[in-house]
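Hello again,

I reread your note about wanting to compare the complex against the isolated chains. To keep things tidy I'm splitting this into two emails, and this first one only covers the full assembly. Below are the input lines as submitted, including protein chains and any nucleic acid or small-molecule components. They are followed by the predicted structure of everything together. The single-chain runs will come separately.
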Amino acid sequence: MNVDAMLLVLNEEQVDYLLIGGMNFLIRHLPELTFDVDIWARDEEENLRRLNRALRRLGAQWGRTEAEWRPVPEDPGWLQLQTIFCLTTDHGALDVFREVRGLEGRYAECKARRVRTETAAGVACPCLSDRDMLACQEALPPSEQKTRRMEVLREAIRRSEAK
Amino acid sequence: MKSAQVSQLKREEERKRDAAFDPAQRWQHIQQTITWAEANLPPHLRRNRPRTRGPEKRRPSIVPPHE
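Full-complex prediction:
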C-alpha cells in the first residue's frame, strides 16, 4: 500500500480530512497491524466533490454489491448513499468515513484539535488528536474496542496533560 | 444510525472489498504497507537510533578500550 501516494492526492485536491484509525496510531504511537488507510472527510458538498476527484485519481473502486464493483463515478452523489465506504484503490485499501462514532457532528472541533504531522517521505498528514482517537474507541461496543490502543492513548493523554 | 447498524455496515463494506480485491495485488499492498510502516514508526521505535540500540551497546567490543 502506498500511503504517501494516497495522502498526497488528497492533499493536492485540497480535501478537508483527518487521518484516523490504525495508520494514525502507527504514525504517532506504536506499530499496529493495519492494512487500510482510514480517513474522516468533512461532510460538506464541495468537500465531497474534491474527495471524489481525489478518489478518481487514485483509481478508487466501490459498489453497492460485489457485482456492481467498479471505478467510482464522476458524479460525487454516490458518496451520499451511506456514511462509510471501504474502497480499493491503485495504491491500497482506503476507508472513507463521513461520520465517526463517538464524534458525530463534531468534525470542526476535532479538526481544530488535529495534530499536524508528516510521513517519513514528507507528506503532510492531518491526524485526529489522541483524545478524539480515544473517544472513537470508547464509543465502540466492547467486542470491537482495541484495548491496547486505548491504554496507549490514555497514557499519551496523561503525559501531555502532566507537561 | 445506531451503533450496531454502523458495525454491520462496516463489516459488509469490508466483506465486499475483500471479495473485490485481486489477491496478488492485495499481497503486494500488504508487503508495501509493512515497508512503509517501518519507515514511519514513531521516532522512539525507529531502528538505529540511540534509544533503540541497547542490545548493540551491551555487546562487548572486540577491541579493548584505549588501544
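For quick reference: The CA atoms of residues 2 and 62 of chain B lie 65 Å apart.

B.
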